[in-house]
Amino acid sequence: MIKRFYKTASAAAQDDGFAVLLDGRVLKSPGRIPVIVPSRALAEAIAAEWEAQADDIAPRAMPLTRLIYAAVDGAAERHRIAEQALAFARSDLLCYRADRPQSLAARQQVAWDPLLEWLAEHHGARLVTATGITFAEQPEDALARLASDLAPLDACRLVGLHTVTTITGSLTLALALLAGRISAAEAFALARLDEDFQAEQWGRDAEAEARARALAEELAAAERFLRLLAAN
Questions:
Q1: What is the rounded CA–CA span in Å between residue 93 and residue 112?
Q2: Integer Rg of the chain from CA
Q3: What are the DSSP E strand ranges found in 86-200?
Q4: Predicted confidence (pLDDT) at residue 118 exceeds the cutoff of 90
Q5: How far is CA 64 from the centre of its chain?
Q6: Quick check: 190 pLDDT over 90?
Q7: Average pLDDT estimate for 2-24
Q8: What single-letter DSSP state applies at residue 16?
């Protein structure tokens, strides 16, 4: 645990964005890179995380700080982050359907098909689905279109997108959240459709529910991060 080493945390405009300040000095990432963000709202929210710390700094209570650190230190590897996010499209959760029971298959179709259709309409990428244990080989032109859409994203948005993709197992859900098509709560519910169906049949496990709540909180933080990036 790190002791609080500063008195005040604030945000201030810089020539190239907005800085997070600790006692008037620009916050630096673990890689010793100054934390400069494109949005005042995000800078103020990150500063608020630091201001809220008690005598001991609790990194787990600072999700926005963790995300901006990943973006700042990973900026030089932006293309690698994009490739990792794109890899999820090759095995997107929404493309794998149950062959039984029929009630689960029907629930997947109703919940997931509209998002795949949205992806086709807004990104020009029509992914194919499969049932059972069959692997769905995705069309290379669809993957190329998704790669093209990820390429212009800055490191901050890519880190937020990658976080959502990793938690949900779906680039489709991540892109829909980034675009404001769905919320973090909706994305999480869609990603856990199978687990929730099984819990309805066999009951819920307290340990699994605790893990799910932690992931839901992480997903909500990623959504807030992305929304603050877009705020004026």
A1: 9
A2: 20
A3: 96-97, 130-131
A4: yes
A5: 12
A6: yes
A7: 94
A8: T
